[in-house]
Design a protein that fits this description.
The complex is a heterodimer of chains A (295) and B (275). By secondary structure, chain A is an all-alpha fold. Chain A has a domain of 200 residues: MetI-like fold (Orthogonal Bundle), CATH 1.10.3720.10. Chain A has a two-stranded antiparallel sheet. In chain A, helix 3 crosses helix 12. The longest helix of chain B has 35 residues. Chain B has two domains: 52 residues, no CATH class; 215 residues, MetI-like fold. Chain B is mostly helical and 275 residues long. The model of chain B has no long low-confidence stretch (mean pLDDT 88). Chain B has 13 helices and no strands. In chain B, helix 3 packs antiparallel against helix 10, helix 3 runs antiparallel to helix 12 and helix 8 packs antiparallel against helix 9. The chains are: A mainly alpha (295), B mainly alpha (275). At the A-B interface, helix 1, helix 3, helix 4, helix 5 and helix 6 of A face helix 1, helix 3, helix 4, helix 5 and helix 10 of B.
């Protein structure tokens, strides 16, 4: 990109353009980021003066059973959402990448949950999960269940139910990431494979998936960050219950900070979450780097 | 078209429609519950989806049970202020990043990209404290300002500006155009499709925003509509029908905008992923 020095342009012109963004960056990102690190070494309940407690918050984390429950639940979210957000959307993308009349309408319908608020989605799914709701009718009708389940009140089913809702809401988004990738694959690759007698499964396995590796890598990274931050669905549907079955790190941090006013402790947990997320992003980058296939 | 081809195509449409039902079904169930008359059960085996007859009683009840018009208006204000600010701040910052060389250009770009790696939940607490220290807790400004800076917007516009033919910019510069004039009269019009995409995504994200307003606002009169729905759901004794009707009302604006602009959204995602 050639961006030479422009005659007549004053040295400070570029900075003037960037000032609004830089001020917002300083006030709402840099300053809070530094505050977050400071807070995690303090005991602070908003009302009284903050007290420096050294590493005490981190020591408390290690011995806090609810923290480990929350971490485990967050990891279960991550694992549970993997097939919903990384695998199924790829199949959906292949499906809506066909040249058929009206295919745009189907893409739009699959994308609809992405544009609606998580609150509305949570409310809608409470109707689906109702004891006398559609899901119980389908599953008992098909003989999979003997009797209806109250999914959101059941310590075993509550977490899978929330994973399903979060995954359902975002599938369309991941489908579009993959669709963008699919449209870069030259059609003649498929033609050649078809001439060689390769079936649909073979074409998916040996052409689509290898060429989609960079997009799968993007999907995996975004999925991990999304899953580790799940909050609104939990707030709307279960409040972390029953018996902490859906207590995730995101919800626990929020609850510690804004229900119990343990700002320091909540920040320390936030810092741990932050480090975890960066570590995952780096790991994922390391694992997928170099496997990028250039078409 | 041969018969097997026709059958194959019909099968494909059946599959596509079945999947569409999975994505639209929960909204249809909500719509049905919000329109059913009092005498018709909301839940039953088998599901009884068609309201007989459809009634607006529950929509009216939801509309009055909480200050619905206020919440809708608040959401319009949040969107109406945040989105233009977000677009102009992003464009101003993206312009020198794309077209000028200056000391610290890479530093600024990477600082802004780094914000993508600050998870919302981690920033929630310190940002709330900063906003409180600035006296913006429980204000519209406190809800709006932290949402104005977006790495996504700056990134996308930088790509777009860098793609504008150099000759166009150079010609304007040799004509003695002021940088601000070039920005306003050359670059912004050239970037119109990208601006439209940012506008739609901004609209959707601000309309649906939940966790930040929840933390900043104490006064329920300043709630955006998504918070209003959570509030309605939390009121004990809210009828399942009026909750459904209220929820449907809350998503109508964003769904309508999406239907109208869907082509831009889907094209825009393609551009963003490629960029």
């Amino acid at each position: 990109m050639a961006a030479g020095r422009i005659p007549g342009q004053r040295w400070y012109t570029p900075y003037l353009f960037a000032i609004p963004a830089l001020v917002l960056f300083g006030v709402f990102f840099a300053w809070p980021a530094i505050t977050a690190i400071q807070l995690s070494f303090l005991e602070y309940d908003v009302v009284s003066q903050p007290v420096f407690v050294g590493l005490e918050n981190f020591v408390t984390i290690v011995g806090d059973g609810r923290f480990w429950t929350a971490l485990l639940n967050s990891l279960l979210f991550l694992v549970g959402m993997f097939p919903l957000l990384v695998v199924i959307p790829l199949l959906l993308a292949v499906l809506v990448n066909q040249k058929l009349p009206g295919i745009r309408t189907f893409r739009m319908l699959y994308y609809l949950p992405v544009v609606t608020s998580m609150v509305a989605v949570g409310v809608a799914w409470e109707y689906v999960f109702h004891q006398q709701g559609v899901l119980n009718w389908l599953l008992t009708g098909a003989g999979i269940l003997d009797r209806p389940i109250q999914y959101l009140l059941d310590p075993f089913w509550a977490l899978p139910a929330l994973v399903l809702v979060e995954g359902w809401k975002s599938m369309g988004f991941y489908m579009m990431i993959y669709l963008a990738g699919l449209q870069t694959i030259p059609a003649n690759l498929y033609e050649a494979a078809r001439v060689d007698g390769a079936g649909a499964w073979h074409r998916l396995r040996h052409i689509t998936v290898p060429l989609m590796v960079p997009y799968i890598a993007v999907a995996v990274t975004v999925e991990m960050l999304d899953a580790m931050q799940a909050f609104t669905s939990i707030y709307v549907m279960t409040k972390g219950g029953p018996q902490d079955a859906t207590l995730t790190l995101g919800y626990y941090i929020w609850s510690a900070a804004f229900e119990h006013y343990e700002m320091g402790y909540a920040s320390a947990m936030g810092l741990v979450l932050w480090v975890l997320m960066i570590a995952m992003a780096i790991l994922n980058y390391r694992l997928t780097r170099g496997r990028t296939v250039m078409p | 078209m041969s018969l097997p081809m026709k059958l194959r195509r019909a099968g494909m449409y059946i599959l596509l429609t079945a999947i569409a039902l999975v994505f639209v079904g929960p909204f249809l169930i909500l719509l049905s519950a919000g329109l059913k008359p009092a005498g018709q059960a909301v839940f039953s085996f088998p599901p009884d989806i068609i309201p007989r007859p459809p009634v607006l009683d529950w929509a009216i009840e939801a509309w009055t049970a909480i200050p619905f018009p206020t919440y809708l208006l608040n959401s319009v204000i949040y969107v109406g202020v945040t989105v233009p600010l977000y677009i102009i701040v992003s464009a101003l910052c993206a312009y020198p990043l794309a077209l000028m060389s200056f000391r610290g250009r890479n530093l600024i770009f990477f600082a802004i990209l780094s914000t993508m790696f600050l998870p919302g939940e981690v920033m929630l607490i310190p940002r709330f404290l900063v906003v409180s220290q600035l006296g913006m807790a429980d204000t519209f400004a406190g809800v709006i300002l932290p949402g104005v800076l977006s790495a996504f917007g700056i990134f996308l516009l930088r790509q777009t500006f860098a793609g504008v033919p150099r000759e166009v910019v150079d010609a304007a510069r040799t004509d003695g155009c002021h940088e601000l004039r070039i920005f306003w009269h050359v670059m912004l019009p050239a970037a119109r499709p990208t601006l439209a995409i940012l506008g739609i995504f901004g609209f959707i994200s601000v309309w649906n925003s939940f966790i930040w307003p929840l933390v900043v606002l104490k006064d329920s009169a300043k709630y955006p509509v998504a918070l209003g729905i959570a509030y309605l759901a939390g009121i004990t004794g809210t009828d399942v029908r009026s909750l459904a009707a209220g929820t449907i009302i809350s998503i109508i604006p964003v769904v309508v905008i999406f239907m109208i602009m869907q082509r831009h959204i889907l094209e825009g995602m393609r551009g963003a992923v490629k960029g």
